[in-house]
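Researcher: We're teaching a course module on how sequence relates to structure. For the next exercise, students receive a sequence and then see the predicted structure as tokens, so they can try to spot secondary structure elements on their own. Here is the exercise chain.
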Amino acid sequence: MLEQLPYKSKQFFIAIIKLSIIVGASYYIYNRLLKNENLNFSEFASFLSKTDAFSTKNIIFLLFLTIFNWFFEITKWKILVSTIKKISFFEALEQSLGGLTASLITPNRIGDYGAKAIYYTKPYRKQIVLLNLMGNVSQMTITTIIGFIGMVVFYSTYDLELNYRKVSSFLIIVVIVTSFAAFGLQQSRFKIKGFSIERVIDFVKNIPQRIHVLNFGLSLIRYGIFSFQFYVLLQIFGVGIDYKTAMVAISSMYLLASIVPSLAVFDVLIKTSAAVYLFSFLDINDLIILSISNLMWLLNFILPSVFGSYFVLNFKLPKATD
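Model: And here is the predicted structure for the students to work with:
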């Protein structure tokens, strides 16, 4: 659509989109921080001031983990895009952080797909969307595998009260959806926005094995970093549990956080509730878990999105020769 607009109209339209993204992201952050029903901001700030969470040593170490988390995400994106086009690390950084900022105002961060695709000319865009999907699927796969193991251990260790009727109903729905998906994959005429499933499978198969290994390897490293960051925050707030025990709860929490948003609109509320519920079995104060969840969100989403806002504001449509 943009290609068909006159130059001045195109520039005006892009400026409106940029402004909408920045305003929308700012409003989202404001609501999450100051209008959070689960954790009052003044209570959150007061609680932090009573701990050494803001000591220079802790801040440097937490920022160090955040930087490395995004360094590996950016590196993963650079490697994935290299299968169709060579880009620099800075370009990968710009696209990753710009996409993050745009995704804050969309359900399940789906805006990230469109934001990254628009950095490329039309012939590349479908492939970019598929590569982004591959990166997200690899991260989800790592989260699911480790989370499932953690959940099994958690369930066998603690007295979880499960509604087996609801669990059975959920499993039946999963089997039905999986069956329909498998049937759809067998139909070569089945398409997603003009891109047949057969072509998608061929696209993934044609990507070198080395890229797939790196994709999953970097996803695993990222998972290790942000889960360790959560554990570090537990230690900062004086929670005296060992790493193995903490990881069982952390991995279970991330599993629920990854699955739930696809089932409910109020993903932030449910994620926080899941964290509080799981860590209650370890006798950890709710305020500590709510504070850590907020800090993880600030460190790994809001802080990078501030830099992403700069890239959004300075975005220019790619030239046809790019």
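Model: If you want an answer key for the exercise: The longest strand covers residues 191-192. The longest helix spans residues 122-157.
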